[in-house]
Design goal:
Length: about 375
């Protein structure tokens, strides 16, 4: 990946002008509101940049909802940058009187990463059991759309590019209905627009290094963040077709949840640590421990949360984490929280986790006859933030 050296104001190549014209034309002629997904990463930044230019040029265009996902386990530097950008965008939109609003989704408490992992005992996500993307990203985005737009026709713009990976290209090709449009897998009245489908990584960097953002300044904070992490990104995911893509996971380096166990090694966290962000080291170690212990059968129950035993090809399929292991994860997480001095888990999540432990303990004892003693997690030993 050729990272730009500085934010020079090189003359904008014609391919970017052509894409801006495409965005202008599609936006100007559309009769439905827009959702522009924005992760704060490089690809969605290009798309948002272009849409804001269109919104300014065509004040009679439809409303644009800029939607980001905060999974509440985002890499701390990335969420910091994203929150900062939301503030800048809101100020700019208000000053210009644009028909644009900015929104951050979060998973409901019951579906949070920690409640699923530690409360319900779901093993850390992998490609076979990727329970995270739908709960942390797709469902919150869908819930936002249901609340604000309902069942009306909708246009959605994404920063998807064929050059991201071979599987991304296959997926785009599979769902495309024309050069820049694809279908949404679940919302029949939603069209997905992919204006930067054909850009390469270098093109994206060139654009970000060449333009002045609509709100002024430059993209150097973003460029420097990638430079330090040498990362890619886990995009805002608004459509289940993304589940067959590497998106957040197997491709590396990338930004995403700091807890992500879909990658063997989190090279973006590793890159940031190497760049001097030593406070991220405990997070990196904790994530690696989650990967190491995921498939250790001594951490797992031999039945699922409904008490059923399942076999595949004659082999026992291990179920959720044992209650003792869930307690160990929470204890370790609280130690990390204390070390890094950041709020990693909410008090309400810890309360719900205790309720779920009690539910499982009583259920397993009553219906399976397994007696599971459990020490309540002693919160007094830990600070919460
Ligand atoms: S970054 Fe990893 S843990 Fe987070 S939603 Fe994507 S795949 Fe799941």
């Amino acid at each position: 990946m050729n990272m730009p050296k500085n934010g020079n104001a090189a003359k904008l190549p014609s391919q970017f002008k052509n894409i801006q014209k495409l965005v202008d034309d599609v936006y100007r002629n559309s009769t439905s509101p827009w959702v522009v997904t924005y992760s704060g990463g490089k690809d969605s930044s290009v798309v948002l940049d272009m849409f804001l230019r269109s919104a300014k040029k065509y004040p009679d265009g439809k409303h644009i909802y800029v939607v980001s996902n905060n999974t509440r386990v985002e890499s701390p530097l990335v969420i910091g940058q994203l929150e900062k950008m939301h503030k800048i965008l809101r100020r700019y939109i208000e000053a210009e009187g644009l028909k644009v609003s900015v929104h951050m989704t979060e998973p409901p408490l019951y579906d949070s990463f920690w409640v699923n992992l530690i409360g319900k005992g779901y093993p850390a996500p992998n490609q076979m059991f990727r329970w995270c993307t739908s709960r942390l990203k797709i469902d919150p985005t869908s819930a936002f759309i249901d609340r604000t737009i309902g069942n009306k026709d909708l246009m959605m713009s994404v920063g998807t590019r064929a050059a991201e990976s071979a599987s991304r290209k296959r997926n785009i090709d599979k769902h495309s209905v024309s050069e820049f449009f694809s279908t949404h897998t679940t919302r029949q009245n939603t069209q997905i627009f992919m204006p930067i489908r054909y850009l390469t990584d270098d093109d994206v960097w060139e654009y970000l290094a060449s333009v002045t953002p609509p709100w002024g300044g430059d993209y150097m904070d973003l460029i420097n963040l990638y430079r330090e992490a040498y990362g890619g990104e886990c995009p805002v995911v608004a459509d289940a077709s993304a589940l067959s893509q590497p998106s957040c996971g197997e491709r590396s380096p990338r930004f995403g949840c700091w807890t992500c166990t879909l990658v063997k090694d989190d090279s973006s966290l590793q890159g940031l640590i190497a760049s001097g962000y030593m406070n991220l080291k405990p997070l990196y170690d904790f994530r690696n421990w989650l990967v190491e212990t995921r498939d250790d059968i001594t951490t797992r129950l031999p039945f699922n949360r409904q008490g059923q035993t399942r076999y595949k090809n004659g082999l026992l399929v291990y179920g959720p984490y044992r209650l003792e292991h869930r307690l160990e994860i929470l204890t370790k997480l609280m130690t990390v929280q204390k070390t890094v001095g950041a709020n990693l888990i909410l008090d309400q999540e810890i309360d719900l986790i205790h309720d779920l432990w009690e539910e499982d303990r009583v259920f397993f004892q009553r219906y399976i006859g397994v007696r599971i003693p459990l020490n309540k997690f002693d919160e007094s030993e830990f600070v919460t933030f």
